[in-house]
Protein: DUF4139 domain-containing protein
Amino acid sequence: MMNRTIPGTKWFLVAVGLGISVVVAASTPAQTHGAEISADQYTKIDSVTLYHNEARVVREMQLPASNEVQQIRVPHLPIGLISGSATAESDSATTVRSLRIQPAGIVDDDKREKLDGLNQQHQSLLDEQFTMEAKLAVIEQDLLTIEKLVNFSSEKVQQNLDRATLDVDSVTSLAEFTMQSRRKLAAELHGMQRDTESLGKKIDANRLEYGRLLSKQDKRGFEALLAVVSPQGGWVRFGYVVGDVGWKPSYTLRATTAGDDAPTFRLQFDGEIHQESGEDWNDVALVLATSRPDAQSTVPILTPLRIKTSAASEAQSEFGASSTGGSFATNIPAWQDPAVWQRDLLRNTEAGNKQLDEYRSAAQVQRDIAADADSQIADETYPVQGRIDLVSQPEPQTVAITADQLTGTLYNVVTPLLSSFAYREAEFENTLGRNLIAGPLNAYLDEKFVGRTVLAPTAASQKLFVGFGEDRQLRTRRELLSREETIRGGNRQTELEYRLVVSNYHDKAVDVRLYDRIPLTAKNGAITVVLATEATEKLSPDPLYKRMQRPTGILRWDLSIPAKRFGSDAFDFEYQFSLELDKEQTVVGDAMIEKMRADYRFKHSSGGGGFGGGMGGGMGGGQF
Structure:
């Protein structure tokens, strides 16, 4: 290979799609008219950048000196080469006059035109699918909003009945509105689901026809033709993108405990590679990337939120009719990317519905994050050390990327409400100086496999939590010791006392984080919840817990359970709290399933264990 660091070197770039026609003369130092050079004799794949589902392949070619135009043929390119992805760059003394990619063998113009047409149709179908999915999301949100309106109105009706001020006409009007809205939205949802299914079949048929046409051409795939002028000789770097490839991360975390010493942790990061491009990558420099070549760089635009007043019977414009009417793709400037409009309008619509719900609902803790919170923490690239061989084959291939030592603490989590056993968990700070992307993880404790989990996206310096499976030598249960009710004026107060039992079968003391919960209430004063002072004083002082979990009613005590405490000598932890509400009312769940799902997603989308990782701020609330 020639020296790539020549002072003053400039690169010249040519990019083409399939089927670009060029007319060139060809020559070599020994042949000055019409000859063609096959690049097989002096070209090789030098480097590969592997993305989630495609790869950028770069071949290097060294050219002989010639004052004439040389035509370089690069045969045997893979059948998975992606249209429009080919580029060529050269040193300052070499000029790439033209570059053409064409199917190998003899392919008539009619077939080439059909292939290009199918590719264009496929992109159009994908755009239509995106639009349908956006509309489906809006309809589902509108149905949910209708249900919230019904619940809100039912509460108002009950209050009016209690006060003997029920307006029958208003109730009837509201009932008719909700029934009509439900029927209309349900019909729209059914029709959209049917259209989406039909569109999916069209996409499958398109790819099937494209594959059928490709299968009839030469199995060698494609070939490249380059017209080059290089008077002193030089190099050309020819690149293209291929499909049927990809990679995904995987981790192995090994914890080792030795007596009373602090445990040690070793984190192995591997890449599981799928390589069926149709060409072998031999002795290449490999880089694994988490970014997407088609990633959108445009900043999301926040649009104004306009509101007005409306009676329940006139609320249709708020609760979905206008939000689902029309297309997101109308009146887009010709120079603008439709995908950007689709993204921004959908996000603003969803956010607007959430804000309207905040204005109408009773005050309470609102924990929510944007729809893209589940994405990776950052785009990363991982150069694989040394050069590597990766053949094209159906079976996955694994390459080692990094191996690091981590410092952390290992403890037990005890949650009697959810499990009869303790679970081991390790807490780290990401001191590696780089972000960790999400991926499956196999956990080992003292060389024993203890289970699988998923490593959450973790920024540099952020907290990292990893589970190490059950510890069946730590067992637990929860007991309601007493429940006493008293009437105070118009209110009923209920005093509850609980016992959390932990049995330790180990021959040494064990540190645990003991969890329980008290209910979270709206700030309208209908229910008051008070945790006993003694239990409050014993709560964990951990700042992250106090910021993220304590305001939501999650209780955590950090305890040391003495050795061999089980049976009649089991470790007991007791606490009390009280509930006070109107004596004519009773306690029911407040959209329990829906809000639990939202809280669960919030926890896992914002940093794993500890309910929020490094995120936080402004979550407050609750009657605690």
Summary: DSSP finds eight helices and 25 strands in the chain. The radius of gyration is 32 Å. The chain has three domains: 12-107+219-244, 112-215+294-374, 407-612. The longest strand covers residues 463-488.
